[in-house]
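Quality-control log, excerpt.
Job 1 of 2 completed; input and output follow.
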Amino acid sequence: MRIELVKDESNHTAGWTIIGENEDEKRTLGSMRNLLFWGLKENVVEYDGMSADPDDPNYVAKLHFATRGYTASKKAERRE
């Protein structure tokens, strides 16, 4: 999977494009698109944190996104 940054006239990052390079990645992109497009109420996709690079904590290794219902259930589990 490849990510290309979208830049505005001032060369500031204005978004990104994710490109699936094989059939599995294209299916994954379809699932991501469905969550973003059809997500309502507890199915809205939200930012769910990040993981630092284990070799250099100054860099982000992973960005996490999940549905509102999933993140709420994880928080409830942590409280129990």
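Job 2 of 2 completed; input and output follow.
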Amino acid sequence: MTLPTEHQLLATPTALQHRGPHIDTSDPAHRPAELRDRDRIYYSDEFARLEGVTQVANIGVAAHNRMTHSHRVEQAAMSILYTLAYESGHGTCGAEEEFNEPRPEVAQAALIEFADRHQIDIDAIRAASLAHDLGHPPFGHNGERALQEATLCKNCVDEIRTNKSTGQLSADRRLSGEGCITCSNQGQHVEGGPMHPLPDGFEGNAQTLRILSILGRSSHWAEDLPGFGLDPTRVVLEATIKYPWLRRFKSDELMKWGAYDCDLGILKWAFDSGAQPGIVQGEADMGRDLKPPLTRGDPATYAGEAFGRSLNAAIMDWADDVAYSVHDLEDYYRAGAVPLWQLKDYRSESWRAFVEYLRQSPALESNKKLKAFVQEVEDWIAYIPKTPLTSPKPKFPQGKRFASLAEFDARIIGYFPNKRFTGGSHDVQQISYFRSKAMSRLLKGMSIVNNEFAEDDKASVYAQVLKRIVWFYVIDSPQYSAVKAGQRRAVREVYNYFCGLLEQECFAPGEPDVLRLDLLPRQIPIRLRDYVQLADKCAVGFGRYPQTGPGNRYLLRRAVIDFICSLTDSELTVLWDRIQGHSDLSAIRLGFDW
């Protein structure tokens, strides 16, 4: 998968600009603007919600959630920065032995010099690390899939899940803006499609941008001038955007996107210091021919080009991968769901079953690095004699044939615990040792070459393998399939219920495309009402769809998604119970005053 070339947002006054005009820049502590952004995110209700949102899968044990994951991403990002500073030649901090001394001022001086040399904003990366998962719906990735199923047809969802075109939605059709006929038929339900379609669907990264820039609530939110969210500086917003393009970006290899069609103006503002902030609801229409003028960087137009991902975002993204691959595996090993002790030897049936699972994955064909690793494992299994697992592990031969696998065995698998987790001190020590060794290897998985992000192919594959072990034993396991199906059903039914209610009540007879906010039904939650009214006040392209055709229906559907993404797992479950007619009044205690 090839991302657009990284570029730097220079440390100029434009990088520290806020889109909103009402931010209070006074600060008794004299913190940098990016650090204030980080603290504002940290203390926001939107970040606090993540404590109640599943990271990968809730299997009834104490696993880390989206909040603890975000904290670990911030820590991993700082470790990556210190590692990069050290490996870049130690700057002017002195010899290697001096850098290795336990003197924090030496390492900090090297880090600051390294960041200045490469135009890296440390505080922006910290802020982005905390913010990157704000857009995840209840039930983690399973909830994300449910909202995709609720807004897009099956063919489009399959494309997103496999990173491979099914032929239904080609890159050329995304490029033209036509989209999938089933999903964008003027917002109407057609056979085989979703009940309430949205052509730009749902994506957690795009929702994060929307929360940061439109929906978030903070002390500087103005009733008379809404629509700026937590209003981070341009450099923080850019560091958070891992996929700086719309859904119709021309690529059959990359099915993630970082902004919805209605938020194109915000995406443009984040990467273009000459762009308009969209303060006043303007006359400009975000139609299919919109090609905003740019003053720097790669052109980002509705015709399908993309901005280059910033170096700050690349560092944060790798920290996310590292934290995801190691900590999730640790959680589910502790829960007894992932038998790491059975994966210490490639001769085991567990490895054979896992390799077969990878072989059957639709995404394998488009992932050349992982495919090569799987082939290397298969070659090694065929190469070694069939001896019992009680005999010593075969040693890898010298040479390049199994070099990648040998390192993975020595640096990762070799530190897997050798028995089931029981909670004893020895078990805790073993899994902690694995975590330390795996993190140390993966944190060195990137470098900066010619001021651009360069990925270590081996570390990238190792992280992917660790993540897919969790998918094999937990996410795609038959034992968990019924729970996942129920969670997705809950999300879809809540979405369809509120979309149906709003679209039935908010359009007067004879005026099917004219949104009437005075007709908003009383029985909707107050927070959903706020999101509908907020979106209606935003400028087109800065939180709002065009007010022509199906644009107002899209506005209501997007507001329902905004509402769902403001809920925790338990809140959505209670809400779903009430929609089904259950008499659980705890929904009122959870804040659903409706």
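Post-run check on job 2. The chain is about 50% helix and 0% strand.
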